[in-house]
Amino acid sequence: MKKTAKVMFIACVLVMIYATVAVAAVPSDSVIIGNKAFAIAYLTDPTHASEIQEALDNADPGSIWYSIDGITTGWTGIFTGSLATASEIAAFPEIQYRDAQGSLATYAAGNGDVIPGGGDVAFEVVDIY
Predict the structure, then answer these.
(1) Count of the separate structural domains present in the chain
(2) Signal sequence: where (predicted)?
């Protein structure tokens, strides 16, 4: 019995070490404003001020969150300074996210995965002749 328990323990440890978890969520170094999210670099670019203002005008004050590497350990309420609870994160709406370059991606509700085709679609014309 002891030998079986040791083998089970070692197997569990190996699984935890080598297992990978694929999690896609709104990236850190971002601010969520209602159902919009922006990378900090995009947010602080003055050429996007009207878009940011529109998001702020349409957002409930309780729906503004930020997550910044090295400063926060998760989504933090901008007015409360408190970390979001699991139930608050689960209540996040579907979010349209703009990265630093302005590309759009859409994340499923609850800070979920990227929705395929939920962002900008770019086409490039290529001359093959």
Answers:
(1) 1
(2) 1-24
Q: pLDDT (tens digit, 9 = 90+) per residue, 59-96?
A: 998 899 999 999 999 999 999 999 999 999 999 999 99
Task: Give residues with Cβ within 8 angstroms of 37, minimum separation 6.
Answer: 26, 30, 31, 95, 96, 97, 98, 107
The two structure tokens encoding residue 17: 């070490």
Give pTM, 2 decimals.
0.72
Cβ pair 114, 106 in contact under 8 A: yes
Within 10 angstroms of residue 18's Cβ, the number of other Cβ atoms is 7
Residue 67, domain member (yes or no) = yes
- The sign of the dihedral angle between the CA atoms of 56, 62, 65, 71 is positive
